[in-house]
Amino acid sequence: MKTPQQGLRELAALEGFAPAVDALGDGNPLPYVLVVEPRPELARAAVTTLVETLRTLPDVDLVQDDGAWRERLDALVGVARRAVQLLAALLALAALLVVGNTVRLDIRSRADEIAVLQLVGASAGFVRRPYLYEGVWYGLCSGVVAVLLVLLLELALAGPAARLAGSYGGQLGFAGIAAPVLLTVPFGAALLGWLGARLASARHLGATMPH
Question: Would I find Signal among this entry's keywords (predicted)?
Fold first, then answer.
């Protein structure tokens, strides 16, 4: 339950409303407000039924339901999340191809050295191992750079996000990306680098193996 005095104080705390509240003087046109927060697991149909029931009460002048707005917001967040997932998949594929192409060019530049190793009896695993390490390092370094860029982006957005939250009375927040997710990025990138190097080396070294 919010009293008219509490509502007036909250209104005055919002950006741009303080002069209007001061102009009211001792008057307070705000009514008593009962804030009802349904449980998160409650279905939308049950919330709608609750809203309609509250509207039929004789002492209730107005019932404001933010459920529709939240549904639209959740839908937009879902679309954004799916777009980010697709973008991440495309970037992972691009990283795989870039590392594979880099290793392929490195193998071609060392074709004579590889041929000598194969002639003296070096196994495919022995010849391939340096390129796998190379792919892992490429992936690991790119993952670390990506994490640093994300952290810089979060720092750049922290100020505007705080001002946006303040304009909504502090009801919004900017959480950023969780630390466990950031820690897994370099290792995931290293795995992609290893896989790209493995595919490229298996294909191009296999073609140069003596028969």
Answer: no
Residue 140 Cα distances to 79, 117, 192, angstroms: 30, 28, 9
Rounded to an integer, the average pLDDT of 53-59 is: 83
Burial 34-53 (b: 16+ CB within 10 A, else e): eeeeeeeeeeeeebeebeee
Instruction: Give the residue from 114, 103, 81 showing the smallest Cα distance to 192.
Output: 103
Q: Is 38 helix (H, G, I), strand (E, B) or coil?
A: coil
The torsion angles phi and psi of 33, rounded to 5 degrees, stand at -125, 130
Report the alpha-carbon angle 84-87-91, nearest 5: 135
Cα separation, 8 vs 17, whole angstroms: 10
- What residues form DSSP beta bridges with 201? none
In single-letter form, the type of residue at position 20 comes to A
Mean pLDDT value across residues 25-39? 76
Tell me the backbone φ, ψ of residue 156, rounded to 5 degrees: -70, -30
Q: Report the pLDDT averaged over residues 103-125.
A: 82
HSE-CB of 4 using CA atoms within 13 angstroms? 7
Average pLDDT, the chain: 80
User: For the chain, what are the domain ranges?
Assistant: 82-208
For residue 36, is it left (φ>0), alpha (ψ between -120 and 50) or beta? beta
Q: Is the dihedral of CA 67, 69, 70, 74 positive or negative?
A: positive
